[in-house]
Automatic annotation (TrEMBL):
Name this polypeptide is given: Peptidase S1 domain-containing protein
SMART domains: Tryp_SPc
Gene3D superfamilies: Trypsin-like serine proteases
PROSITE patterns with a match to the protein in the record: TRYPSIN_DOM, TRYPSIN_HIS, TRYPSIN_SER
Every Peptidase S1 domain range: 100-345
Keyword Glycoprotein part of the UniProt annotation: yes
Superkingdom per UniProt: Eukaryota
Amino acid sequence: MTGGPLTCQVDGTWLQAGVVSWGEAVSILTSLGPQPHTHVNWILTPELGALGLGILGLPWPLLLAGLFLQGRADPGWGCTLVLRMLPAPATGPALERVGIVGGQEAPENKWPWQVSLRFHFEYWMHVYGGSLIHPQWVLTAAHCVGPKIRSPEFYRVQLGEQHLYYRDQLLAISRIIPHPNYYIVEDGADIALLELEDPVNISSHVHPISLPPASETFPSGTPCWVTGWGNAAPPSFTPESLPPPFPLKQVKVPIVENHLCDAQYHTGLYTGDSVHIVRDDMLCAGKIGHSTCQGDSGGPLVCKVKGAWLQVGVVSWGEGCAYANRPGIYTRLTHYLDWIHHYVPKSSPASAHCFLHRWHHPTFPNPLPLPCGPFYLPPSLMWQMLILLAAVSH
């Protein structure tokens, strides 16, 4: 019934007051009356003229009715919604991301910050991705946990898992914090924090990813990686469920500059160029045949900068799966650093300038804490330091 008329009988005359638009459970209607009356003015613009009116299929009585309704609509009027049962419309262009396309199985322990977010159905099912940015904090997309309010008890987090559902050790969540500006993915602010009930033990296969400094720009063409357990797609780009044993997948994607990405998303649309589809708090990455698809939502987009892995984005939305002119769209983390650090301590491993690792080595009975400082030590160098310390201790 989308696009159908909402009609009201006023002084014995039927007037069209609105057009069926959208809503939750029930339809919300685009008004042709006083809230806002600008729709009527747009219909009568000189650019449309009589031919435009004919194309729109709006007979003069309805146009006059729209004008008549300006200043006349009353909340107490009883109106009739003219319905015609039609097949359900296809999903719109903005889709939640649900799978890696054009990638391959990730090497074990390569992405130790990767999170599987579970929701309780008949079992704790993987529904979205996420990333560990602090021993007690997980970063994900707001659409994974909102905007409807749900209790944290319905969710669990799984860390350090190469294959889904194998050796599960699910962690409870104490608090869900979606960004307060989030409502739908196309409007941005698609970011959320999950506080774990207890901090996790940091090791070589489970540790946080660093966040970028606010000044980092990540120019177009920068090679980055996105990971997840979502659907995979064959060359025909028809999504299919990831088959057992449900391995973690990875794909290399180039950053696409926002203005170019926005222009690509306007391709094939009536939407005017002045309407920004890709907003300032978003980041694009991907190319035809290489991107995210359904199930990867909330997962991390990471880039290696001067030897350090930094999370630059959160998987948010896009159109299709790795289609031409439709890169994946991510929440840009540099836009939300202040909001993140309102909850997550800056002195944590989440800071790009402070990376605290605790590495296991057979020589040491307990994990060895390494000092925190304005540098990043690659794991290979950390191991060399530990081996050297072990040799000196003898």
